[in-house]
Structures are given as C-alpha cells and as structure tokens.
Amino acid sequence: MSDEVMYLRPEVKIEPLVGRWHAWPHLVSPAQLALHVAYRLLPLLKSFVASPGAHVAASNDPKMYGGPFVSLHNDDVAAAQALIDTLEQEGARLIALAADIRALGALLDEKANGYSLDEYYAQLPASLRGLVELVYDLGHRPDFRLFEDLLYDENLTVSLQQIWLHTTPESERDFFMSTPRLEGAGLTVPLRFADRRLDALAAARSRPVSPQRLADELGVSEAQREAFARLFTPAAPTAPAAARYRGDGVRMRYFGHACVLFESAREAILIDPFVSMQTGDDGRYCVNDLPEFLDYVVITHCHQDHFCMEMLLQLRARIGRIVVPSNNTGSIADPSMALVLRELGFADIVVLKPFERIALADGHLESLPFTGEHADLNIHSKQALALRLHARQFLFLIDSDGRDLMLYRRLRSRLGEIDAMFIGMECHGAPLNWLYEPLLSRPVSRRNNESRRLSGANAERAWNILQEIGPQRVFVYAMGQEPWMKFIMGLQYEADSIQLVESDRFVAACTEAGISCERLYLSREVVFE
C-alpha cells in the first residue's frame, strides 16, 4: 500500500452496523435492541433460512420493497444461518432480556389489580433487578419504567457494533430494517461508534490522508489492506467544503427530505441531517455543500429518516451542539435520544422540553409540541421548531398531522408572524407494526394496525393549519423521494400516489389563494433579506 495522500471516494458508504444490521436508534438503545433481536431480526433470518425462495421472490418485486422480506439470494442461506448462530451466541444476554421484559409485562397484566406492587420486586428476573420501577397509571393499569442510563452500563450492545465500508450504489442499497449486511462486499472495521478514529475516516472525504497510515490507525487487517486502498482516490472532491454564509440576511438551503440548513453571518443551524454523500447531475447538494462547522444540529424526532446515525457519525467532528427533545423517561416505546447520542460519541447535547428555548447570536430556537405520526403511542421525544433569525421567523411542523387545529391557533398566538412554514405531507404512512412491532407487549389486530399509521397531514389538514398559522410562504418537504433516502424510507411514489396527489392539491390551493408554496425536492436555496 502506497503512502501517497488521497481522498476517500465520494461513493464510499460508512455504514454503522449492530450485529450486521444497519444501525438506527432502536438498535443502540439496549432494551429496544434486545426486543428487535429477539422478535424481529432473528425471526426474519429464520424465516429466510426456512423458505429462501419466498423471500427472493418478494425482494425481486419492486412493490414489495420495504416489506418484511430479507433481500438475499438462495446461496446466502449458509451465511444467514451463520449470522443466526452468531446473534444467538453473542446476543444471548439481549435475547434473555427481551424475554424477561415481555414476561414482566405479562405478569403485571395478569396479577396486578390495583393492590400494592411491592411483592413483585422479589419476582423480578436477574436481568431487570435494579433497572425498573413498577408503577400504576391513574387508571390503576400496571406498568414499569426502565432506568435507561443504568441499562447502558450493562454493555449489552458494544460488542455488536461495527463499521462497514462499501460502494453499493444508492439505488441498490437494501432496505435497512429487513436485510442484514452479510460478510462479503466491502470490508468491516471493528470500531465502536463512539471511537474518535471514525472522525479521521469521515474527514478523508474532503482532506487528503495517507490510506496506509489511516489503515494502521483503524486497525485494518493485512488481508483487508488492498480492499481498503481501493476506497481512496487521488482526485480531489469536485465540490470543496462550502464557505460560511456572510450576508446580512438569512440563507436557507434545502438538502433533501427533512434536512434544512439555516445560516446567518454568525451561525449555522442544520435540522434533521440526511445528506447525499456524493454529487450528482440532478442538482442535489452533497455533504461538501455543508459549511465546515455547524454551530447547531437539531433532531426533531427518533425516526430513522430524521435521526440518521450513519450521517451523524460522519458529521460528528463538525458539530458544535446537538439538540434533541426530551423523552417519556423509561418508556420502552420512547428511548432517550440523548443517551443514544452519547453512545455515538457526542458530548455537547441539549435536551429541550416544549417551549424551552436556546438563545442564538441572531435570535433563538424554540421547541414546540408535535402531534401525530407516531401511531398514537405515548411518545414524547418529538418536537416541532420555531427558529428566529434577524427578526425573521420560520416554523417547522415536521410530520405533524394537523388533527387539532386549536393547537396551531395557540401556537400562532405565542409566536406571532411566521415568514415561512415547513410541513411534511406523507399523509398515508406505514402502519404501527412496520416500525414498532417488536416493542409491543401483545399483538395488535389487523384492523387496529391499519388504522394507526405514521402519517402526516393531508391537503385538507395542511390547509387548515395554514389558515391558523398564516405564514407568508410555505414549503412542503420530508416526502422521502430523494435517491439516497430509498433504503431508509422503503417507498417510492407513483404519479398517482396519494401523498403526491394530496400535496399537489395543497400547493394548488395555496397558489390559487396567492400564497407562495412549493414542494421541495433534492435542493433549494432561498435568501431572506
């Protein structure tokens, strides 16, 4: 391997894995990881090993993309069985924890009837001793809450963390939630996510390094050195890191899906980072179009298309403070985003409750209530945002469903004039089971599952919100159609998809009323003078 300095190729993916599965927040939080391993990942793999043909047929059908089918081949059965064996061996404590969590819930449901819960502490399994509090809600229904911080101390997840380097094209990446990343293509580096050596690898996209020295630093094996060297190129990036905005106004840059950058001359605030790593001929912005330093990164909620760990790990060294909403402490459905970020190596983390503010050099950032899009689960870790810069105010309603218009009337009375409103309109999202099935303590009926969806606003609700808020300008965003989002979103709209039809109706209604409105895609820049 030559000692020549080179750049990491833009098409290289630095993908974090947990037990060979794409890492997302529920695979880092220990209790949630345990439930996913026991009740989603292992059953999926075993289903594939038992009937590979069914999975191959389903994965070859574009309409089934994003479904519960392992996208592997018939000759991958042996490798899948090997992964089952590895997960059952290395994840034995996780599997036992998952069974104990389910058993505790069942015990309380069956036995606790409003009488004191003291006697049940003696019946706690060893895996949960000192890690839970048994409680009743105000309707005398039993439950328990986890001491999440302490559960991280058990080191249940660290041994399963890896970094996978590969050059799979955007359009060919397998859906994150249903397909493991088997050994083979690319190479795996056994690094914990919090390891600072990852920063040097990510920086190599825009700063030349010696691949040989970096391989030494990362502990790349001799057998993998040649493959590692092929990930680098002497060609400098076509787009160097963007200069900071120095104008007198406020610059907005849209990077796709829900990722929006706002800049004044003194600060850069990035919301829900999920950026293309490579340039394209489609007008997209890429990671090098971000400024070298981001004063604030704000994450609105714990869904994988907004809280992207693959992206955050590659931006970590460029982020000043990272801002998240508070969670429903101790709830299985609502893991702490702050604790996940700590596991990713972030230290300067700000946790906001609704209506708490962060003072900025040229204004402030305020956390706001965000209703809907979580299938009616009691999840607190989600926030809409009001951003004020240079007397301009921007409202991010994220994927709010707009069911209760009084909320937006109350917000308007608090916030005052809004210069621009951003709203997601994925109005027919996935059902409850799609994301949360492993966490549920009992099965949900098909009828109820279909009724509880991860949905944003439709045209009527978006229009009603607009009437209450009265923004001067509207942007529809977070539709998940950018090419680099496919493996995370698991969807691709047709021209007659309800999400496009409804958002088109809304844009047309705004235009007819003389309100500037556009549906964002790929990239956009607006300067508010």
Would you kindly provide a brief summary of this structure?
By secondary structure, the chain is of the alpha/beta class. The protein has three domains: 7-91 and 156-233, no CATH class; 92-152, no CATH class; 250-520, Metallo-beta-lactamase, Chain A.
Index terms:
Metallo-beta-lactamase, Chain A, seven-stranded mixed β-sheet, 529 residues, 3 domains, alpha/beta
Describe the protein's architecture and organization.
The protein folds into three domains: 7-91 and 156-233, no CATH class; 92-152, no CATH class; 250-520, Ribonuclease Z/Hydroxyacylglutathione hydrolase-like (Metallo-beta-lactamase, Chain A). It has helices at residues 30-50, 52-59, 77-90, 92-111, 148-152, 197-203, 211-218, 225-229, 309-315, 337-343, 405-415, 432-436, 446-451, 459-469, 486-489, 498-512, and strands at residues 7-8, 13-18, 21-22, 132-136, 142-146, 161-166, 187-189, 232-233, 250-254, 260-263, 268-271, 294-298, 319-325, 349-352, 357-360, 363-368, 384-389, 392-396, 420-424, 473-477, 516-519, 524-528. The protein has a seven-stranded mixed sheet with strand order 14-13-12-11-10-9-22, with helices on one face. It has a seven-stranded mixed sheet with strand order 15-16-17-18-19-20-21, covered by helices on one side. The chain has a four-stranded antiparallel sheet with strand order 3-2-6-7, with helices on one face. α10 links the parallel β13 (319-325) and β14. The radius of gyration is 23 Å and the shape is globular. It is an alpha/beta fold and 529 residues long.
